[in-house]
Each structure stands twice: as C-alpha cells, then as structure tokens.
Amino acid sequence: MTLTDFNDATAMALAIQAKHISPKELVTWTIEQALAMNPKINAIVDQRYEAALAEAQSRSFKGLPFAGVPIFLKDLGQDKVGLRATSGAKLLQKHYPKQDTAYVQRLEALGFIILGTSNTPEYGFKNISDSQANGAVNLPMDVSRNAGGSSGGAAALVSSGVTSLSPASDGGGSIRIPASFNGLIGLKPSRGRTPVGPTVFRSWQGAAVHFAVTKTVRDTKRLLYYLQTLQMESPFPLPLLSEQTIFASPQKKWRIALFRKQPDGQPLGQEANQALLNASRFLASQGHQIEEINQLPIDMAQMTRSYYIMNGAETANMFSQLAEAMGRALTKDDMEIMTWAIYQSGRRVLAQDYARLLYEWDDYSAQLHAFFQDYDVLLLPSTHDIAPKHGQLDPSPDLLLRLAHATEYSNKEQLELVEQMFEKGLALNPNMSIANLTGATAISLPTHMTTAGLPLGIQFLAAKGQEGRLLELAQQFEEAGQFRQVLAR
Questions:
Q1: Are 406 and 284 in contact (CB under 8 A)?
Q2: How far apart are alpha carbons 54 and 42 in whole angstroms?
C-alpha cells in the first residue's frame, strides 16, 4: 500500500485504525504534498506543521471516525488557537483567535489533524478567491483561472491532491461554487445542521453554514453523520439525521423539478444546458420522475437584493466591533475597495428595513416549502460556466472609481453600486442564495466535463432537513460512474 492509494479520508482513517499506516506518515506525506503544490495554487495561508507532526505521534485516535486524517481549516470563521485568522483581510493579517470555534472543536474530536488554513477572498464576499492580502487561488488544472470562492483554497487543496477533503463554508454558494469549478462534491447542509459558536451563532442571520468539499459520497455521508449536532444554545436547532437516513442505499423514486433556464427566463449556455440534459436523462433512466419548470418558486431579483442588504448591514456591524476593539475608526485604506463599498451601503440600513428583510426571508422559506409539496428535489445548474480567468470578474475602472467614492452617494445609489459590482460574478451562479436565505440544503455534483476539459457541476436543492435525498441521488450518480473528476497532481 502506498499513500497515493487512498481515494478518500475514510480510506485513510481505516488504514490508520488497521495500523497499515501511522498518523505521522500520513501527516508527513500531506505536508510534502502541500509544500510541492502550494507554490502553484496558493491555497495555504498559515500552517502548524511541527505541531501537527507532534500531535500525530502523541494523540490517541482509537475509535475516531476520521482518525489521523490531515486537513486545512478555511481561513474564515474556523478559528483555532495558534493559527492566524485573517479572513483574507488586510486588517487581520496579525489576528490570532483566543479560542477555537465549536466547528473546529468538533472536527478535532472526530480525529482530524489540522495542518493550517486555506485561502479565501476578503471576508468571503466573492465567488472567487483573489484576496489582495493573501493572493489569488489558482485552479489546479488551469492556473490561469481562479479556483472559486469563497472556499477556493479549500477546493484547490482537494482537487490538487494535497488533502482528501477540506473544511469549507457556504453563505451564498461558497461551497458549491468552487466544488463546481474543481470537479468536487459540495454539500451545503441545512441551517442548524453543523456546530456554531461560541462567539458567532447566527452568521449572516443563519445564511452561512460550515461543512466541507469532498471527493467521494462516502466521505460526504460520514462527515455529515458525525459532524451534525443538535445545538440547543444556537438560534436554529435542528433534529439529528438518523444513520438510516444518511447511509441508506438509493431506493426511492423522486419527483424532480428541472429548471433549465437563467432566472430571467433566458436560455443557459451550451455546456450548462448539456450538463442538465445529461443528468436528467440519467435520472429518468433510474426511474425518477422529471418535470421541467419555467420559473423558480422565488423571485430571484428580489431575493438577491435582500441578500445584499443583509450583507451590507452585517458588514457594518462587523466593522463597528473591529473599530471598537482597535480603538479607532476604520478607513478605506483598511480594506479592499469592494469591501469598502459593501461597508458603506450597510451603514445606512434602517432597523425597520432590516427587520422587514428578515420577514421576507421567512416568506421565501414558506414559498420554497410550498414548492416542495409538489416536488421532492429541484435540479438546476451549480454554476453557469467554468472557472473564470483571473481578472475576468474585476469591476471596470470607472465602477472602481465610483465604489471608492461610495460615501458620496445616497443609500439607494450605494446599493445599486453593490449590485453592479457583483453583476459579473452573479451571472456565473445566480441561483445559489435560495438555499442560504431559506435554510434549505443543496449539493453540487461533478457530473460534467466541458469540451475545454474543465469541470462544471450540477446542483440539487431539497427542503430543510432533507439531506438524505441529496445523498441518495449523489450515490446513484457515483455508483453509475457519472462523476467526471480530473484531480490535478
């Protein structure tokens, strides 16, 4: 047995439990892979290699489901004492957290060994990872392209072969977008499914959740089963999924709604359309009932605007706390221009408008719930195209100038600037926020390879608490050899 024989984290853990390999050997090999690959992909922000090696020799991993498996935390909301927590930001390059997050504590309790942190955009605001402070993350199979965001570093570590799975988070598609670009599995769990706290319990009002990008359905299932929690101190407690629900072999035939358009009714690009056609044909061959729909159950333009308002208000609150901690006002020089514009747009949001926005989210949840009375699952694109070239999504010089002068505009104009700022990026993944704002669960699967030889994922959406349906479908695709994964090494 050689180290390259391990297909996933489960195989690694089983080999350690059977004493076919030691945790130290596995950690040493992963560090060597990281040192070899990171100059190419720029996926790693900070590391604790010596501490991880010592831990591999001293810890007991007996009976732990992911015994001795090395991973890198996402450098955004996944804090571990001793590792910098920069959030991809200029302002936080020397920030060291004072306590581990509950999510990280849970990962370590499952047997994972933490090697460091993975690269993200500043504060996770983009669907690409191009932080000015930490640099852009390159797509391993084409370094002229970005690996996606905000979990870009996490995805690049897996698709490059450095790690077998990688912790990630999703506040607006940040697991599913890089999963699509990198040919990986990207599950966004239901709101309340995975641990939160002890300092932040309702990240982006519950829109953001933590999980991982993976290569195999087996790892996805096992990680969800062991990571899930019924956390009564959190604002969104959710009953645990049973072992049967997560690990059941596919048996049921689902009613699947197929949405094969852009939100405004325009046709999809050729590759995204082909990906959905291929997937729907496969599903029909497995006995599922496919019904094409002409519009989504939620007004995406309205939902996207409410997302931007929330993002601005939460950003203003975050910077208010940072300013208080630093004892000074924050300036434009403390952050990227796009971050500055989001910050300014949030400072003028009225409390009454923010309260109304949250009521709108409840309406969206009710609309989606009604939709899932008629259908079991919704099939739609993950991303509408392959990973973008570096610089492809940059705002124009004129727009950047206006963003830099965001304080001179009215609140309405500031929001319009933010919408313009994200227009190019949103065109790549216009449907992601449905799952985030409603708390539903979604998954991106690597079922399509374009004529250019690059991955493009498809996405399934199910009601809150229905991860089991998504995992059954994922297993069907995997077992039938429908995944199209090219892992760069």
A1: no
A2: 25
